[in-house]
Amino acid sequence: MSVRAPCFGIVFSSHPIPLSWWVPQTIPIRNAHPTNESTHQRGSSGGNRVIYDSSDKKVTQIVSYIRIRPSFCLGGYIEPLPVFPPPFPKHNFSLWSRHFRVAPPFCQLSTFSLSAVPLVVMEKIPTILSFVGGAKEEVVHPIGPLTASEITRAASLLKASWPANTDFNFKAVTLLEPLKAELLPYLQAERSGSTLVKIDRRAFVLYYIRNTDKLHEAVINLSEGKIESNVRLGANVHSNADGDEILMVEKVALEDKGMKAAIAKLQLPECSVVIVDPWIYGSDGVHDGKRMFQCFIYMKDPKHANEPDANHYAMPLPISPVICAETMKVIRIDVLPTGADATIKELGPYKMHPANEYIPEAQTLRTDLKPLNVVQPEGASFTVSNFSDLGRTVGWQKWNFKIGFNLREGMVLYDVHYDGRPLFYRLSLSDMNIPYADPRHPYHKKAAFDLGDAGAGIMANNLKLGCDCLGSIHYVSAILNNSAGEPLPMDNVVCIHEQDNGIGWKHTNYRTGRAAIVRNRELVIQSIITVANYEYILAFVFNQAGEVAYEVRATGILSTSPIDEGLTVPYGTVVHPGVLAAHHQHIMSLRIDPMLDGPLNRLVYDEAHPMPVSDSNPHGVGYTVAETLVLTSAGLDLDSNTNRIFRIANAAVHNPVNGAAVSYKIHAPNFQKMLASPTSFHHRRAEFADHNVYVTAHRDDELYAGGRYTNQSRGGTGVRSWAERGDSVEDKDIVVWVQFGINHVPRVEDFPVMPCETMRVALKPVNFFSRNPAIDVPPSTQATNKSVLVAAEGTKAEATVGVEGKVCCVKEVN
C-alpha cells in the first residue's frame, strides 16, 4: 500500500535539520513526544512549496517529489527522500541529520535517530510544497501585548496550515515574551537611549481541534510571518476553559433529558429558574483522563425568578451533571450527599428555604452615610505613556515601570526602577489554588486553579468610575482572543490611581512641640477578576519610601452545597438554612524576577537568636541577627520563633553608609500551608502550596508555579519539581516565588456576600538607600489637605489657618 504525504517542509540551518510533513492517520506513529523545534505548514490545494531566499539564507521555495510506501512501520519511523534543485548551498543543510520530526495534523511529533529508521520504500510523485508566510509585521515593542491585528494574523497563519474545513477552538493567542537574554539588553538600551536591536514578535497559540482531545501549542513568528513550531500535546494535558465553552456547558446541562428528569423529581415550584455553575472537573486518578466539567446546580428564589441578579447560591440543588468537553454531552449525573456523610439519598421534593439576596434593592439601606469624595484639584501625580499600542509606561514619585496584560496572569509589571535604579525585571501573580475540605464524592476533587483553569486576564472586570477606583483615574484596556481566534476587546481592565494610606512618617520634638509629618501617598495598579462566584481585587501598591506591595482582597459569594436541615459537619459551616459552605484555602504565588542593581542576585534569610548569658551579656538581654545564604534552589519556610525574614540581595553592591549588601526584604504573612495530605491530588497538583518561599534558577519557560497546564493536572510540572533540580542560586539570575493566603473557615457573616479578606506581600528596601527614601516628601499641611472640623452635637467648630497652613486656633462655640 502506498500513502501520499500531502505536505512536506524543510528548514535549513547549520544545525541538524528538522523535517516536518503531514502524514495521514493510516501511518502509525508510536513513541511520539512533543518537541518545540518542529513546524508543519500547509499550502494551497496544489500542495506545498518551500521558497529559499539566498540573501537571508532561508528556505523559501522547493519542489519535491515524494511518495512514502512503508514496508515496515513498527516504530513509526518515516524516511523522506526529497529532491533539492539548485541553488541550495550545501553548507547550509545536512539531509542526513540525526533528528527528524513527524508533524502531521493528526499525529504527535516524534524525534528519532536516522540510524534506527527501518526499511521504507520511496516512490517519487509530484508534490508542490508551500511555505505559509505573509507580509512582515511592522516593528513594535518586544513586550507590548498582542494587538488585534496580530491576534488575527497569528490565528490566520495557523488556520492556513490546516485543511480548510478544520474547526478550531482557540484557547489562547498571546504574546510569547522574548528570551530574557535578549530582552534585558534591549530594555537597558532603551533606557540609555542607545541603538535598539530588533527582536522578533512571536505569538503563543494554544488550540484544540474542536470536539476532539487534540490540544496543540504553536509558536508564530509575527515578524517573519511563519509558524516556528506546532506540536500536539500528550495525554493528561488539558487547556483552560473559555467563555464560549462555559456557556455551551450550561446549555448542554439544562437541555439534557436525564437532567430534566432529575430536576422533575425535585418538584420545584412552577416557573422556577435553574442555574448551572460549571466547574473544572478536578483530579482523583479515577476515570479522569478525558477533559470534563463537574456542574453544580442551583435555583433562583421563585418569588423573584425574573431578577437576573438573584442569589442562586442560597438555593443549591442536590444534582451534579458531568459533561465531556469533547462531545459536549452529559456522561453521568451525580446525586450529591446532603447528610453528615457520603450517603446518597433518592431524589425527592426539594425543601424550599428563604431567599438571601445581596443586591442593594433587596436591602433596607442605611440613611446616615454621607458622601466622602476623593478630589485631586490639580489632577494626578502620575504620568502614563504608551510604549506600544496596548502597553503602558508609568512614572510616579521616582518609580518607573511598564504594564503589560495577558489572558492568564492579567497584569504584569516589567522593568521596575526606582530613582533610576533597577529593582525587578518582572512581577506577576503566578498562580492561585483553592482546595476545598469536603471529603465526600464528588466534592473531594474540588480544587480550583483560577489562573491556569480560566485566566486572570479573561476574567477581568470592566472597571467603572466612582465604583472600583476613586479619585483621578487612568484606565488601561486590553485585547485578548475568543474561541474563534478573533480579537476580544477588554475595556478598562486595569485602573491606575493614587490613594492616601494614613501617615507616612512623623516625629514631634517634645521640647519645641513642632511636628514633622508626611502622608503616605500610594500608587495603585488594580484589576478585579470574577471567577463565577468569587471576586479577587488584585493590586500592585507603590509608596514613596521605595516599597512595593502586592495585595489581594477576596470577596464575592461562597461556593455552596445543599445540606439537610438541622445538621452540621466538621468540614464546613451552615451559612443559611439548607446551605453549606465548605472550608477551603486560598493559596497564591507571587513570582518575583529580581534585578536589584543588576541581574545577579541571591536569596538570604535573617534570624534573631538570643545571646547566651556571659561576661559580654551579663543581664541576658542581648540578641543577634544571623544571615544564612541559600545556595541551591529549594522550598523554604518562615519561622516566627526566630523572626525569619527572607531578603533578595546583590552581594556586589554595597551600601555607602554601612557597607552591607543592598537588598529588599520580603514581608509576607505566615499562613497555613496546604492541609490536604501529601498523598492527595490536591497536594500533588498545587506544587507551590507547601512552602512560604521557593527560589529557583531563572528559566524563560517557567512562569507558572503550578505548571503551565493545571486543568485536571497530575503534578510534576511546577515550582516544587523545578526546585528539586538543585540549581545553584548564589549570585545568579534567580526567581523567587512567594506564597501567601488564608484558610477560609466560612462564617454566617460571609453570606450572602463576603466582606473583603485582605492578603498582602510587601517588598521593602534593606540597606538599599543611604537614608529614608521618603524624607523629601512635602509635609502634610492643612492648607493643602483642607480638612474640616466636625463639632459635637449642639456646638459648631471654628478653625483659623495660620502661616504655612497650620491650624493655629481651634475652638467649639455653643
Give a nutshell description of this structure:
With 814 residues, this protein is mainly beta. Helix content is 8%, strand content 38%.
Give keywords:
mainly beta, 10-stranded antiparallel beta sheet, Cu_amine_oxidase_N3, globular, Nuclear Transport Factor 2, Chain: A, 42 strands, 814 residues
Can you walk me through this structure?
The chain has a domain at 148-232: Nuclear Transport Factor 2, Chain: A, CATH 3.10.450.40. Strands 18, 19, 20, 21, 22, 23, 32, 35, 38 and 39 form a 10-stranded antiparallel sheet that branches. It has a 10-stranded antiparallel sheet with strand order 24-25-26-27-28-40-37-36-33-34. The protein starts with 6 loop residues before the first strand and ends with a strand. Mean pLDDT is 85; it is low at 1-139. Helix content is 8%, strand content 38%. It is mostly beta strands.
- Give the low-pLDDT segments: 1-139
CATH topology of the domain at 148-232: Nuclear Transport Factor 2, Chain: A
What's the CATH first level of the domain at 148-232?
A: Alpha Beta
Named at the architecture level, the CATH assignment of the domain at 148-232 is Roll
Ordered list of secondary-structure elements with their pairings:
Layout: E1 7-10, E2 19-22, E3 47-49, E4 51-53, E5 58-60, E6 62-70, E7 100-102, E8 110-112, E9 120-130, H1 148-159, E10 168-175, H2 180-192, E11 202-209, E12 215-221, E13 226-232, H3 243-255, H4 257-265, E14 274-280, E15 292-299, E16 319-324, E17 329-335, E18 383-386, E19 392-396, E20 399-406, E21 410-418, E22 421-435, E23 447-448, H5 450-453, E24 474-481, E25 487-508, E26 515-531, E27 534-543, E28 548-556, E29 560-562, E30 572-576, E31 579-582, E32 584-594, E33 602-610, E34 623-629, E35 634-636, E36 645-654, E37 661-667, H6 681-685, E38 693-697, H7 719-723, E39 734-744, E40 754-766, H8 782-785, E41 796-801, E42 807-813
Parallel strand pairs: 3-9
Antiparallel strand pairs: 1-2, 4-5, 6-9, 7-8, 10-11, 11-12, 12-13, 14-15, 15-16, 16-17, 18-19, 19-20, 20-21, 21-22, 22-23, 22-32, 24-25, 25-26, 26-27, 27-28, 28-40, 29-31, 30-31, 32-39, 33-34, 33-36, 35-38, 36-37, 37-40, 38-39, 41-42
